[in-house]
Amino acid sequence: MALATTLTECAVGGGPALLALTTATAAHRYGVGMSYWRAESPEVRANVRRAARIRREWARQAQNVGLYLEDRTPSLKDQWNNKSKAAQSKIFIPKLTRVTADAYGVTLYFRTLDTVGLPEFQAKAAKLVTAWRVREVQASETEAPEIVRVRAMVTNPLTKNVDMTPPAGPVLDWGAVPMGPDMWADPITLPIENGAGMVVAGNPGTGKTAWCLGLITTLAPSDSMQIAVANGKAPAALVGDYRGVAPRVSHLLGSDTEQVVEFLTGLQKEMNRRYLTMWSDLGVDSFWESDIAPSVEWPVLVALLDECQTWMEDARVVALVADIMAKCRGAGIFLVLATQKPTDNNLPTRIRDLATTSLCFPVRTTAAAVAALGEGIREFPEMNPLLKMRPEFRGVGTIISETSLGYTQFKAPFCSRTLAAKVATATAHYTRDFPGITVGREHRIAPTVPDTPAQAVELGKLRAIGRDGQPGQPRARKRPSA
Nearest-CA neighbor of 247 among 226, 218, 262, 264? Predict the structure, then answer.
């Protein structure tokens, strides 16, 4: 009705140009402008109109929910009359600088005031849910300290089932390995570059192992990566969750402690060997400073220890893992330690605190969430994985890393064993041994064990020729553009 009245008054009092301008302005104001007609789905169109309504009513709603600054500073006239406060206060509200709409809801950016910042928006989230007629409101910081990002969700993207699709190709940016959509429906990534390793926690059935299979599947098409897996739940290597991905796994072990100790000892030796030869081979002191690594000759080495608590009662395992985690960052080695509950008795703090990334799927206790994500999670209760112990949130994880602004929740795409096995089989010709390590390679056929990267490459070429007649070629790492 208000829109029709505005257009009628314009048509009577102005010409066609003024009418066209007023029509476009009014359409934008009421959410039926170009953004509405360009929207790709009915859900997006509905949220475009919702965004327009929030923008129109923000001045009133901000005062209703308590997100405003009341300034009682006396004017010159008040001071002349010896008044300590102004006769009439001034009301300031956070400026709404930008609004975007998508299929899940609306994202709003506000400029903070002296006493209205991120904590105030978080405290008023429940009132904003009612005022904006949405299901959930979350506020978070941005790279600009004066800007707060508020997410108003009609449909939570974390409850939408996402199936993993075959990876499009090899990993090109090891500082941003794709993982899935976050709570803003934006893609989230895992920083392996310059990382020492990560801790993955979560109750059984929450998506921890599916995420591990997804990680292997994502990395599999990269010939500049080799991965080893030790499965603490399996009595033998070719039993359990990782049997299907065995063709793409360099070393596959079960729960046998002696084999795990032998593998970790070999990995420690390979780490030290890399540091000794890195300058002569790559001309750098740190793996990630090189312009040619990762490559076939100098691959990223990923070691996944699933249900790692199985071996943490052995002092040898604890000492080896702690030493590797502390030193492997510059050697191109990345450890993944997965466990149901990363408390002190399952994963010693001397190891846990060295991880550069922490990921926690739903858990049943606050102690488990704090052990996985650190004490800081207590200050962000909306991010606590304890709140996601419901079927619709299976596969939802809370992650924090050295490169992130804070805690983020994301939905891990479900990686089926069938998909993982297909990708592993298709990329099996990239699989090569970790130099100097003999244990855990019984599931593959190889004439000899390589003692150097050059020998490992030659053996890999022989397997590649046997499969498709073309050996794999080294691939220079693509650096992110400045």
Answer: 226
Among residues 426, 421, 424, 419, which one has the least CA distance to residue 165?
419
How far is Cα 408 from Cα 404, in angstroms, rounded to an integer? 8
Q: What is the residue-level pLDDT of the chain in tens, covering all 482 positions? A: 555 555 555 555 555 655 454 555 655 555 555 665 565 788 888 999 999 999 999 999 999 999 999 887 777 777 677 777 776 788 999 999 999 998 899 999 999 999 999 999 999 999 999 999 999 898 988 989 999 999 999 988 888 888 999 999 999 999 999 998 887 778 899 999 999 999 999 999 999 999 999 999 999 999 999 999 999 999 999 999 999 999 999 999 999 999 999 999 999 999 999 999 999 999 999 999 999 999 999 999 999 999 999 999 999 999 999 999 999 999 999 999 999 989 998 999 999 999 999 999 999 999 999 999 999 999 888 889 988 888 888 999 999 998 887 899 999 999 999 999 999 999 999 999 999 899 999 887 544 445 566 655 655 554 443 344 333 334 444 444 43
Q: What's the pTM?
A: 0.77
**118 with 140: CB under 8 angstroms?**
yes
